[in-house]
């Protein structure tokens, strides 16, 4: 399954230096960014522990540099288009058009575990 132009939502993964170094995984949804903190570097086919964080403003899709209030710095690690296939209180599933130069990568977040997998086409 490919991401279609009709479902052109965006995602971003930021590196963030505060309070300790981590990655922020953010998904565009209904005018905001659903957000999770990842403590280890995102990779394919590796279960990653995540922590749900408050939703962020949509502007974080394009932010880089210092964060206001002395909350460290962020840099884009990856970004692109996505399709959300399922959104429940305890589970989110979707498809990233690309993930670090790999096309069609699915993701699932369930029970505070995130997993990226190569989508079979």
UniProtKB/TrEMBL annotation:
InterPro entries: LigD_PE_domain
Organismal lineage: Bacteria, Pseudomonadati, Planctomycetota, Planctomycetia, Planctomycetales
GO MF terms held by the record: ligase activity
UniProt superkingdom: Bacteria
Pfam families membership: LigD_N (PF13298)
Domain DNA ligase D 3'-phosphoesterase: start-end pairs: 16-90
Record-given protein name: ATP-dependent DNA ligase
Keywords: Ligase
